[in-house]
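question for whoever is on the cluster today: can someone run the full assembly for these? three chains, 125 residues total. i dont have access anymore since they changed the login thing
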Amino acid sequence: MAKALQIPKNQSWRMKHKGENYFDMVYEVVKLIPRGRVTSYGAIANYLGLKSGARMVGYAMNASHANPEVPAHRVVNRNGVLTGKHHFENPDLMQKLLEEEGLTIEKDQILDFEKYFWDPSTHLL
DNA sequence: AGGTTGACGATGG
DNA sequence: CCCATCGCCAACC
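^ ran it for u. tokens below:
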């Protein structure tokens, strides 16, 4: 079973882990998002302590096509909007994947977003 | 080696 | 409320 990133509490979060870049750190967190739940770029950035991080997370997800193991469809923006849909093979694939996990999407927006929102800072340690 | 280009989000005018 | 700015990584010319 996957476990949360081991984050040294007394060290700067801005430091790269040995040989591990920010992108990889983001992927580790995304892999921990449960099926049927979603989180936001900002929430991941906040968990990782990246100061200007939401953007970093966006960059990371942009490159995540190389990692099939990363459930990229479970990451949306802070308003529950599927901003990354155009980066999937089919623009409708992201919505389809989320609907298969029980979510309802209307106009690229997740209904009851708060209900499905999964905050790594709350659920991981 | 340097410029361009992105799945974001807080802030301030 | 809408719009501009800023933060500052990595892949690809």
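summary bc i know u wont read the tokens: Chain A has a mean pLDDT of 85. Residues 16 and 22 of chain A are 7 Å apart (CA to CA).
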